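Incident review: delayed structure delivery

Summary: a single-chain prediction request sat in the queue longer than the usual turnaround. Root cause was a stuck worker, restarted by the on-call engineer. No data loss occurred. The affected request and its eventual output are reproduced below so the record is complete for anyone auditing the incident later.

Affected input:
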Amino acid sequence: MSRRNFLGTASCAAIGSTTFLNAILNLGVANALAGLSRPPAADDEDYKALVCLLLAGGNDSFNMLVPRSDDHYSEYANSRSNLALPHGDLLPIHFTDCNGKQFGLHPSMPEVQTLFNNGKLSFISNVGTLVEPTTKAQYLNGHVRLPVGLLSHADQIQQWQTSIPQTRSSKGWGGRMADILHAGNENQHISMNISLSGTNIFQVGNRSAEYAIRASVGGSVGIDVYEGTKKLDRILKTGTESLLAQQYQDIFKSTFTDKIKDSQANHKEFSMAIGQAPRLNTPFSQNPLSANMELIAKTIAVRKTLNMKRQIFFVNFGGWDHHDGVLDNQVAMLSVVSKALAEFQTAMEELGVANRVTTFTASDFGRTLTSNGNGSDHAWGGNVMVMGDGVHGGRIFGNYPSLALGGNDDIGGAILLPSIAIDEYFGELSKWFGVADGDLAYVLPNIGNFYTPGSTAWPIGFMKMA
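Output delivered after worker restart:
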């Protein structure tokens, strides 16, 4: 067999796709000259992690967090019509806002109800993509810069990951954080950004990319033939090792070969570490989201073995584009989310890092208040959750909007104008994670439109100062 033919069969059929994916993403050929690197000033015990849970598709979050007091519920019910949840089914939470509104949760979220009432979780209301502060009058008059492709799935899911709504960027704010903070990790082989959902924009920076792992295999994936026991596996392993041992004059071939070897070495290192993870007493449900959260917990459990002080995790739990059947779909899907969040929080408490790990949700956008018949359509502002002992729990931050059709927050078509920018949301998470005020504009280029870095106040106030 010629070398070219061997490459065509061995590399495409026998070598694990995740190893190749990690290698390609970490080549960094185009970004080799980029460079901000500010390690956090931290002692050996310092550790923080962010866990991003992306509810891809656009979660109808005004059926997740619902006004429960009589007048405000009536406003909700009138606007939502056949999508309104029965008042008696709402799960009450212990919070009343400054306007006297009381709230309840979707009946499929009893675990989130407990987390909220126990001060472990909070909501941030009416968050969305904004380029600059925007009023309803400015929107209607066209006197303000708006996000590119507003209400478009492709654009909005991208902008929640990049936090640059005025343009289509391929770099994420999580990746830019890693550009700055990665040097604080002793381990420079495995990325501080770990994805449970393959490639994503959120974790790609100018010098950083995600390291992909899979819950289905319990960790990272290496070159298949290296781990096989069949005769063909041994033959292919010998051939692969021969190819990787060659000295290539072509710089791309040489760099690619080095990265493949590095990725296999990283796979061995990660696998050895995860194999030493303590057995968790926390039971996790048998579904893909809980399995992903369990693997994140195991990875955090071996943070010292991996020599990590900062980690960012990404999980995509999709399927929220409910133009039809929103009520039935949310019964099942919000139950999965609620259980997974509670299980993960319990595991963090078991590991003693609940104050060092913050989990937050994101979604493409909120959805229209009005029904399209049996579902809801693309909109703008929506509600998100943030969880952990580092959070000021048991509160709803921001102004929960009026749900009246044609009201102060409705810009037309039952679409709510966000009152909090994603930059403020992500800015607070970034500051808690260790990004210095002077570097916030690198991570979030629009942050200065909504918040003054260096201010004694935090952008929103939902995180405890560390």
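Verification: The CA atoms of residues 222 and 300 lie 21 Å apart.
Action items: add queue-age alerting; document worker restart procedure.
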